[in-house]
Amino acid sequence: MPAPAPPNRATTAAKIAANPIGYKVCEGCDSIVGSGAVLCPNCHGYRFEASAERVIHQARILGAREQTSVTAQDLG
Ligand SMILES: [Zn+2]
């Protein structure tokens, strides 16, 4: 039987994209935080974009970042 995949950015991003209502995007640093957060844990910003469209868009960027990081560093 297949081993469960370890949690990683892509898995987290997929989970976020499947449930965008539970998250929002920080307008200060583009971090994805839980919808109940008052302050961004990353930059302490308090302005958030909570639209599902924005959350899914940001989740896709988050998920793609890990997959392309090695290539990007090789090219850089
Ligand atoms: Zn932030």
3D structure, described in words:
By secondary structure, the chain is α+β, with helices and mostly antiparallel strands. Helix content is 45%, strand content 12%. The protein has one domain. A 3-stranded antiparallel beta sheet has the order 2-1-3, with helices on one face. Helix 1 packs antiparallel against helix 2 (52-75). The mean pLDDT is 86. Bound molecules: zinc ion. Residues 26, 28-29, 31, 40, 42-43, 45 line the site of zinc ion (ZN).
Brief description of this entry?
The protein is built from two helices and three strands. With 76 residues, the protein is an alpha+beta fold. It has one domain (9-69).
Q: What percent of the residues sit in helical stretches (DSSP H or I)? A: 40-55%
Distance between the termini: 39 Å
Low-confidence residue ranges: none
Biggest sheet: strand arrangement: 2-1-3
The whole-number mean of residue pLDDT values reads 86
Q: Main attributes?
A:
single chain, 76 residues, alpha+beta, three-stranded antiparallel beta sheet, 2 helices, 45% helix, elongated, binds zinc ion
What is the strand and helix layout of this fold?
Elements: H1 9-18, E1 23-26, E2 32-34, E3 48-49, H2 52-75
Antiparallel strand pairs: 1-2, 1-3
Helix pairs in contact: 1-2
The chain binds zinc ion (ZN).
